[in-house]
Input
Amino acid sequence: MLEGDILFSIESLPPFPETSRRAVEILGDPNRSLSDILEIIKYDQSITANLLRMCNSAYFGFVRKITSIEQAVALMGDQAVLELAMISGSLSYYSQDIPGYRLEGKGMLRHSISCALLSQILGGRRDKTASSMLFTVGLLHDIGKVVLSSLVRDRFVEILKLVEEENYSFVEAEREVLGMDHAQVGGEVAKKWGLPETIQNPISGHHDFERVRQGDWNTIIIYISDRSCKLAGLGVGVDSWSFQEFREALRMARITEEQMDRSLAEVKRQLKKMSFLLDN
Output
């Protein structure tokens, strides 16, 4: 019964915007050109409006008002524009509160963007070519919560009982009561949207420490980024997890406390650019 409800919820989720899907593809292309990017975004009113709002925000303080997409792309750089295209595409999923997980939509959006930025920074330390893909994974890693929210809300007492009385993690309790956890559901959503396995797998595995132990770099990074953002106050909710496993993941990735502090400071700096989306 619940499996059918979950599958129905996945099928009912609006499709990933075509502009954002194309942005995912071109993010990993080192030979992309300015004309390629303009061709992707110029007909998407939401992305172009957000790009111009960002350029004209107080954060940048340009003397003259930026009025054209060509100007905006030239000033912001292709990487920032493509990332904004990804974020704009995710806004519709995070515009509503997510009551099953005690999350406000804005809080979910802030955490998702923070996780995307941190994943990109940490992942880029070893593999610059994978950092753009990790941005996408970080942005969408909790999309399964959008799908499961109503089911978790309806079975919250059962889930919480396992957490409080049986020492389950929240994700383990999700699996026990619903048959799937939000990470697994998120992987199925990414598959339905036609995103590559390099995005599907870290999303579905970001709460599975056994998969982290197997050494997949992208899964390790998203696992670490999700938890680090929450520890830094860039994410709230009812999830619970093991600090011992978190420390082991940091050791596997060879990330020191000093490196993490610097990376989180950079995330908070970059979040200021997004204040026009997060603070309204």
